[in-house]
Amino acid sequence: MAPTLLIVEDDPALAELLVWSFEAEGYKVLQTPDGEEALLIAAETPPDAIILDWMIEQLSGIEVCRRLRRHPELASVPIIMLTARGEEEDRIRGLETGADDYVTKPFSPRELIARLAAVMRRTRPALAGQTMRIEDLELDPVAHRVRRDGKEIALGPTEFRLLQHFMERPGRVLSRGQLVTGVWGHDSDIEERTVDVQVKRLRAAINSTGGRDMIRTVRSAGYSLG
Amino acid sequence: MAPTLLIVEDDPALAELLVWSFEAEGYKVLQTPDGEEALLIAAETPPDAIILDWMIEQLSGIEVCRRLRRHPELASVPIIMLTARGEEEDRIRGLETGADDYVTKPFSPRELIARLAAVMRRTRPALAGQTMRIEDLELDPVAHRVRRDGKEIALGPTEFRLLQHFMERPGRVLSRGQLVTGVWGHDSDIEERTVDVQVKRLRAAINSTGGRDMIRTVRSAGYSLG
DNA sequence: CAACTCAATGACAGTTCTGTGACAGCGCCT
DNA sequence: AGGCGCTGTCACAGAACTGTCATTGAGTTG
User: Fold this and answer.
1) Nearest to A92 among B91, B101, B114 (CB)
2) B218 touches chain A (CB under 8 A)
3) Do B100 and A117 lie within an 8 Å CB cutoff?
4) Closest to A142 (Cβ–Cβ): which among B119, B121, B172?
5) Looking at beta carbons, which residues of chain A come within 8 Å of B110?
6) What are the phi and psi torsion angles at B80 (to 5°)?
7) pLDDT of B99 over the 70 cut
8) Average pLDDT of B116-144?
9) Which positions of strand C lie within 7 Å of protein CB atoms?
10) Is A123 on the interface with B (CB under 8 A)?
């Protein structure tokens, strides 16, 4: 599932640029120019991160930040502050208030995206690129979880390793021999036919929720995912 | 316990200033001017955070960063990069490599301290004294209290440390080995199966009030909370 | 279509891994 | 000393997972 982002920015041109940039990165973006409304939106659908302009109407960014931190549901949502001022005092106040990072205008969208990714990598490892995804199938190696279409799928250890091996090489046809050494290890004396059985088990698991068979059998060559 | 900091900086004057500043803040500080040595120290006694100069001898800061990220034990240690260059390209490369934040020279120690605090608040809430919460389970490291659904839960010392370790890494699967070194310490010669027993005790405690089992067993991998 | 090759399946027995209860040792307090 | 709470280890039972095999089924070729 795409991570949701709330952008609070009252300069229409900049707001549009940001929305566009982050949507291109695959984020689901909510946006408002207004501090009060930002709090309402955040309470309604807690985003995975917030981009907050220091100078906005109604409530100052710093006040929004403070209130977010006081809200138990939202206290742990990462916040990146945007500010035109470069003075150190302001940066420090921002950080002390609970912002996780802060970016000085002018900045390029690319930098902001990189910073957000850094923050997300920390707070939501599952959302920040660690997770591998192919169509509606996702594998989070850190949490050791697999989902298809959002529904969790239970896999045994070998099935998990096998799937991980496939997902690291999407679309590629892997021979039984390659799979044996890759998944079972160099020195295993496993029967090659055993691969068939594990593939069958993996198939049963990831197709149990319905949906097409994502593993393709390539006769006399091997298997591929995707 | 004071959080440990590793400072990698080859300018002696700056290094000394940083060591002094952070020790005054109550951190335990390790320091080296050398990239290779930094990796060794980090592997030996994983610090709670790393301050890393971009331009250092032997290995560039960026390379050190990359290697740290590849090391499983150290992958989640927050890194703040120090750089004299202000070019955006470098910042982005730094962040993409896995740094959590980056500070441009010249900077005041006070700003660096504020930034480190912001990063730590996010990654090691316990060190910042913040109470951590996962669903209806909360742990207050300062008061040494644990509650589930508002009801207080009594834990033994080891159970408490184990739970804290889990809550600092929610959702993450931790191997028995990682738990032994993380909860019992590097040099303990504890039987790995002992982890099972403590997990069982912890489970019994936090599930005693009713509610689902929050600890997930991941066969042949370890346990995770959440 | 028949022969042949390769893949899918179901059954199964062996192995590996986890959950548990029991127990002895330790440090602390009374 | 005796009681108490906490810990680490062990042994055992049960659960989960795995590799193999025999059989069935699908695809290919002449």
Assistant:
1) B114
2) yes
3) no
4) B172
5) 88, 92
6) -115, 125
7) yes
8) 85
9) 5-11, 16-22
10) yes
Contact B9, B105 (CB under 8 A): no
Q: Do B221 and A156 touch (CB under 8 A)?
A: no
The Cα–Cα gap between A76 and B125 comes to 10
**Which letter does DSSP use for residue A48 in this model?**
S
Size of interface A-B (CB pairs under 8 A): 70
**Which of A80, A87, A100 has the highest number of chain B CBs within 10 A, making it the mutation to test binding with B?**
A100
Q: Note the pLDDT tens digit of each residue in B143-169.
A: 999 999 999 999 999 999 999 999 988
| Position A158, amino acid | T
Residue A130, pLDDT score: 66
Single-letter amino acid, residue A79: I
Window from A34-38, B80-84, B165-169 with minimum mean pLDDT? B80-84
Tell me what the mean pLDDT of segment B102-109 comes to: 83
| Spatial distance between the Cα atoms of A204 and B144, rounded to a whole number of angstroms | 46
What pLDDT is attached to residue A128? 44
Q: Which residues of A touch B220 (CB under 8 A)?
A: 157
**Which domains can be identified in chain B, with CATH numbers?**
4-123 (3.40.50.2300), 132-225 (1.10.10.10)
Which of A156-165, A168-177, B203-212 has the largest mean confidence? A156-165
Burial status of residue B39 (CB atoms within 10 A of its CB: 0-12, 13-18, 19 or more): buried
Owner of token pair 């599952």: A126
Of A88, A95, A118, the CB nearest to B108: A88
Interface residues for strand D (CB within 7 Å) are A 154, 156-159, 184, 189-191, 193-194, 197-198, 201, 219; B 154, 156-159, 184, 189-191, 193-194, 197-198, 201, 219-220
Q: At what angle do helices B12-24 and B109-123 cross, to 10 degrees?
A: 60
State how far the alpha carbon of B153 is from the alpha carbons of B50, B125, B138, B204, B208, in Å: 35, 20, 10, 11, 9
pLDDT for res A177: 94
